[in-house]
Write a structure and sequence with these properties.
The structure is a single chain. With 367 residues, the protein is an alpha/beta fold. Helix content is 33%, strand content 22%. The protein folds into two domains: 190 residues, FAD/NAD(P)-binding domain; 144 residues, FAD/NAD(P)-binding domain (3-Layer(bba) Sandwich), CATH 3.50.50.60. The strands form five sheets. The protein has a seven-stranded mixed β-sheet. The two termini are 42 Å apart. 31% of the residues are buried. Pfam families: Pyr_redox_2 (PF07992). InterPro entries: FAD/NAD-bd_sf, FAD/NAD-binding_dom, NDH-2.
Length: 367
Amino acid sequence: NGNDGISIAIDDLFGLHLLFPTCFHRNLIKLSTPTKSETPITKNLLQASLSHFSTANQPPASAQAQPPGLGPTKPHDKPRVVVLGSGWAGCRLMKGLDPKLYDIVCVSPRNHMVFTPLLASTCVGTLEFRSVAEPIARIQPSISSAPGSYFFLANSTVVDTENHEVHCETVTDGTDTLDPWKFKISYDKLVIASGAQASTFGIHGVKEHAIFLREVHHAQEIRRKLLLNLMLSDVPGLPEEEKRRLLHCVVVGGGPTGVEFSGELSDFIRRDVHERYTHVKDYIHVTLIEANEILSSFDDRLRHYAIKHLTKSGVRLVRGIVKDVKPENLVLTDGSKVPYGLLVWSTGVGPSPFVNSLGLPKSPGGR
């Protein structure tokens, strides 16, 4: 925005994470996590700087292994509402909370809310990434301004319902030898809105070779991979078979996300690839694999319309079940192999390990 130095680090703290998620995470951890090579002076300064997060009486910083976090509220304090997660439910609740009545604390591994219905459009450049991400500080301004309200870039690991505490640890990123900083937050009211995770059904190779489409960084990786394959496929001397593999985009899962992404990808191929990558335009194509019917939970008329539109756009529809995913191809239960250059996995969601670990009543689906 034309600023420089410290002003950027402070004013654009939330926005920088969307553009540079890796460095944002690493820098944040470096500011809040002691490393093994720290001197005693550095550790004491770090602990002293974080001591304001506790409302309980604490011993001197030098006597603590780490700060205890946010202690219980006092009788004259506002009740503290702790929200775990920054998705649709958590953000809608925080937006409606009155900061004059409550201290609001949000714990989430991302500092923004993602408008997931438009996430597929960012993969092909129809929309920019900032268009689908809204910083938490804009949704609930008190998070970054009120004395007793905070946002912590961290994961929740344990909920202690007897002591009204949430155990958390900071988000780490990359391969740096940084240990997560662990802390606790006492709550008066707790909202668990940490969301779900992509379902892989235990299929070998999915997590290693497929890309999900649930976060901004997933969309960034899909766009990077797609453009990289377009460039690589134009290299002289590349075998025809390898060129077709690189430019074969496979989507597994015929739900709303898979169908939307397949449609966006086919539109991108017709509009942009045929105009800008004329040398390889005849090699790129999209395959959508679904075990049953696509959009099976929707009305038949809408489902038939989607099938007609996708087919007309050049998307190949395959009914099958994936048995194994390898670096360059996936294997269906009938033994057939499907080579791919880009594999997007969108077969629905299930409860996260954190939600599964909670000793609370749950619905049959794990909610």
